[in-house]
């Protein structure tokens, strides 16, 4: 079985090739595969770790494309079910030369939104070292939300370490109030919780990293460490024993596209912990992968191989 598991919805993304034209005026698009949870698996696989992605797609060309692409990225696709009655989710995405691109999702009533929790019963959990949980999948439907909880409970029963990234997507939720309440409840499943500072402000009302960390540490007996992503400044870490510190970020001359940076942080941290590195070094790797990703236009194009990551860290240390 694979070292890392996740449950998510793959998104076939049609990205404009018309720079800064906006979605209305863009004419030309190219197709690629994305999705936050899948990004984490792709990046972890690129760093040499075995991964398995759990999901459901439609019996349509986009579903076939999804399964084919996941295999091409060397991510396990053994637990991707096919739904004959609902379509594979997709989105449109702007091409911008800096900052956050606008996206528009076609996800309501998708195949993944009809994922049956009974699919979880067929998973082989043996050998799994960590599982990544994200707040996106439970946002797409009540059925997905139920499956997410069932999956998380199976992980806990088996003693598998979990990370939880809130990954807020307000457009997918019934309301902001439901989003806040549900995400904070689901965060209880995470042994390591990974909120961004902007997410902290929405979810618990503060931009103070320590207050955000304290909130999630007190939120669940299971949560042992909270890592608050600070963007270019790096990340703030606090654990249950009260130890806290900040790991500085990496300087980036020009941010091309921030999509995938948070997922890059998660995969960097997860893979480092699996390799036995201490938390501070794991957070440093997360910062490094996130910094590399924001310098590319794709959702996961900037994720490095092990050699590329080693070279990047060495070059940054020389500059210091």
From TrEMBL:
Gene3D superfamilies: 3.40.1190.20. It comes from the Bacteria. GO terms for molecular function: kinase activity. Residues 3-305 form the Carbohydrate kinase PfkB domain. CDD domains: KdgK (cd01166). SUPFAM superfamilies: Ribokinase-like. Pfam families: PfkB. Keywords: ATP-binding, Kinase, Nucleotide-binding, Transferase. Belongs to the carbohydrate kinase PfkB family. This is Sugar kinase. It comes from Leuconostoc aquikimchii.
């Amino acid at each position: 079985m694979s070292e890392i598991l996740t449950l998510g919805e793959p998104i076939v993304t049609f990205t404009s090739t018309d720079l800064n034209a906006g979605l209305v005026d863009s004419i030309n698009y190219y197709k690629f595969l994305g999705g936050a949870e899948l990004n984490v698996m792709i990046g972890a696989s690129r760093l040499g770790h075995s991964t398995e992605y759990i999901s459901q797609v439609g019996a349509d060309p986009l579903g076939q494309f999804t399964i084919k692409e996941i295999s091409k990225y060397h991510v396990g696709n053994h637990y991707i079910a096919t739904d004959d009655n609902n379509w594979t989710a997709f989105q449109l995405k702007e091409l911008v030369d800096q900052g956050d691109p606008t996206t528009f999702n076609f996800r309501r009533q998708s195949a993944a939104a009809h994922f049956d929790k009974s699919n979880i019963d067929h998973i082989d959990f043996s050998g799994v070292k960590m599982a990544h949980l994200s707040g996106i999948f439970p946002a797409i439907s009540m059925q997905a939300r139920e499956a997410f909880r069932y999956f998380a409970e199976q992980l806990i029963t088996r003693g598998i370490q979990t990370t939880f990234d809130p990954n807020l997507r307000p457009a997918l939720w019934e309301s902001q109030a439901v989003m806040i309440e549900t995400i904070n409840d689901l965060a209880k499943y995470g042994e390591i919780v990974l909120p961004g500072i902007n997410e902290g402000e929405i979810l618990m009302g503060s931009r103070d990293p320590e207050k955000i960390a304290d909130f999630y540490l007190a939120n669940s007996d299971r949560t042992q460490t909270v890592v608050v992503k600070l963007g270019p400044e790096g990340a703030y870490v606090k654990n249950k024993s009260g130890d806290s510190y900040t790991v500085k970020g990496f300087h980036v001359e020009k941010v091309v596209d921030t999509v995938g940076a948070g997922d890059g942080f998660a995969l960097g941290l997860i893979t480092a912990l699996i390799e036995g590195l201490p938390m501070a070094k794991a957070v440093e790797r997360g910062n490094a992968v996130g910094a590399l990703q924001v310098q590319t236009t794709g959702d996961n194009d900037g994720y490095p191989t092990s050699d590329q990551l080693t070279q990047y860290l060495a070059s940054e240390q020389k500059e210091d």
